[in-house]
Amino acid sequence: MRHVLCDLCGADDSAVIAETGRLGLPVRTVICRQCGLVYTDPVLELEDYSPEDAEKVRRLRRPAASPSAQYLMKNRWRAEGALEVLEPVIRPGMRALDVGCAAGTLLVALRDRGCEVTGIEPEPAFAAYSREQCGLTVHQCLLEEADLPPGAFDLVTASHVVEHADSPRAFIRRLRDLLTDGGWLFVEVPNLLQPRCSSRRIFHVAHRTNFTPATLRQMVETAGFRIETTRLLDGPGAAQILAQKTEGPCEPGTPEDWRAVVRRLRRHRYMYYVSGTFIRRKLGARA
C-alpha cells in the first residue's frame, strides 16, 4: 500500500470519512483539512487485499468484450450534455482530442460539426468499436503513453476520466501541454455533493479522487486554466467545467470547507432513505 498526500495543496493533514466502498471493498477515503479535496489514502495494490476482495477487484478491472447497449446510451447522454457546454467554442477545423473516448460518441458529434478528431481509449474493445464502427482515429493506450506532440489540439475533453488518475494535477497539466495557446479544456466528473447512490456505494476503488465543484475548479485553475463555465447536472450528479489555457496558473478560489462537505455527506446518508430515493432508484433499475 502507498501513502499519498493531497494532490491539490500537497498537505498531509486529512480526516477519514469512509473505510469501505462499492462491493464492500476497503477504500479508505479521506478529506484534506486544508483545501477540502477528497481522495483515497492509502492506495492499495492487488496484493494488499484479501483473496476474496482481490477477486472482486479483478472482476472490476476485467476488460469488457464489447460496449453494451446500455453503455452506448449512457455515452450518448454524456455526449449531448458535453455539447451543450461546448457549442459556443466549437468551430470547423478545430483539432479536438477526447481522452477516454469510450465508444467515440462525442468525437462523432464533433466530427459532424467540422472538427478534426482524435481519441485516446485504453480499453481494447472500446477502442476497436470507435475505429471500426465509427471510423475514428483512436490511440489504444493511457494518456501518458500517447505519442502526441505539445500544442497539437485546440480542444481537449475528458469525461469521467480525471477521477481515475493517480494524480489529477499531473493529468490536467498533461492535457494543458497538448493544447495550443488559448485552447479549450472540457472536464466532467461525478459531483461528490450530489451522489446518486447510497453512502455505501459513493466511493469506488477505481476513483482515486472525489471532486466537489469547488475542488475541481481549483484543480483546473492551478494547472493553468481560466474557468469559462461551471455547470452542475442534477440528474447524473456530475460537474462540468469549460476552461481556457492561460500563460500561467490562475489564483485559485476559496478552499472548500471540509467540515461542510462532511456534513453534506452525513445528511445524504440520512436523506437517501428518508426521502425514498433508494426506492425510486430500484424501481428505475427494474423498468
Brief characterization of the structure:
This protein has 287 residues and is α/β, with parallel strands linked by helices. It is built from 8 helices and 11 strands.
Description:
The chain is an alpha/beta fold and 287 residues long. Helices cover 33% and strands 23% of the residues. The protein has helices at 51-61, 69-86, 105-112, 124-134, 168-178, 213-222, 258-274, 277-286; strands spanning 14-20, 26-32, 38-40, 95-99, 116-120, 138-139, 153-159, 179-190, 209-210, 225-233, 238-245. The strands form two sheets. A seven-stranded mixed β-sheet has the order 6-5-4-7-8-11-10, sandwiched between helices. A four-stranded antiparallel β-sheet has the order 1-2-3-9, with no helix packed on it. The longest helix has 18 residues, at 69-86.
SSE blueprint and pairings:
Elements: E1 14-20, E2 26-32, E3 38-40, H1 51-61, H2 69-86, E4 95-99, H3 105-112, E5 116-120, H4 124-134, E6 138-139, E7 153-159, H5 168-178, E8 179-190, E9 209-210, H6 213-222, E10 225-233, E11 238-245, H7 258-274, H8 277-286
Parallel strand pairs: 4-5, 4-7, 5-6, 7-8
Antiparallel strand pairs: 1-2, 2-3, 3-9, 8-11, 10-11
